[in-house]
Design a protein that fits this description.
Elements: E1 15-19, H1 21-26, E2 27-37, H2 41-48, E3 52-53, E4 58-62, E5 65-69, E6 72-73, E7 90-93, H3 96-109, E8 112-121, E9 124-134, H4 137-147, H5 171-189
Antiparallel strand pairs: 1-8, 2-7, 2-9, 3-6, 4-5, 5-7, 8-9
């Protein structure tokens, strides 16, 4: 007979529930930290169903408390009257010293707090926060070159590798094809 509810002894991997890929593209990440979220039951169930959008969300620190704003958690279908407001502000659960440290960096250096991912750890929903600053256009280009865009070997990140360039046709062949189409259309008309 197993004791301890089956959780002891084997480490559980964090299950990623949502990622903010746009943040990694638009911002340079200086530092990351983990925070808990104060959620209601219908929000947790919606997040586990994948009905969450991290794009355009950010964190603010007001009056000594950390808040996650513009996080869109879709309504849970089976919650009926006890459903939540999809875009309400959610409280971040951090230690006082960590809140003060983050507030100093945000105020002093002009950094922004952005969520990178939502994941489940030991049955609780956690958010990975990052202190970021905006990338310049040339920084984005260099990142695309270094990561290789679509391929590991490099190449243009804006062109999918499966798309072929248009066939080059000489002017003579193009005129010949056009003339043939006109003659076929005229033959069908008569």
């Amino acid at each position: 007979m197993a004791s301890g509810g089956g959780r002891k002894g084997r480490p559980e991997a964090n299950k990623v529930l949502a990622r903010n890929r746009k943040a990694r593209h638009e911002y340079a990440i200086d530092e990351t930290c983990e925070a808990g979220l104060a959620l209601v039951g219908s929000e947790v169930k919606s997040i586990r169903d994948g009905k969450v959008v991290l794009v355009d969300s950010y964190a603010v620190i007001e009056k000594g408390e950390a808040w996650l704003c513009e996080l869109d958690i879709g309504a849970y279908v089976y919650a009926h009257a006890r459903n939540h407001d999809p875009r309400r502000r959610r409280k971040l659960l951090l230690h006082r010293t960590e809140i003060d440290r983050l507030a100093d960096k945000v105020r002093g250096k002009g950094l922004t707090l952005v969520p990178l991912s939502l994941y489940e750890k030991d049955g609780r929903v956690k958010v990975e926060l990052a202190l970021v600053h905006g990338k310049q256009e040339f920084d984005r280009r260099e990142d695309a070159k270094s990561t290789g865009g679509w391929r590991a070997g490099g190449g243009n990140p804006h062109v999918h590798p499966r798309t072929r360039p248009a066939r080059r046709v000489s002017a003579h062949a193009q005129t010949h094809r056009t003339r043939a189409r006109i003659l076929r259309a005229a033959a069908i008309a008569f």
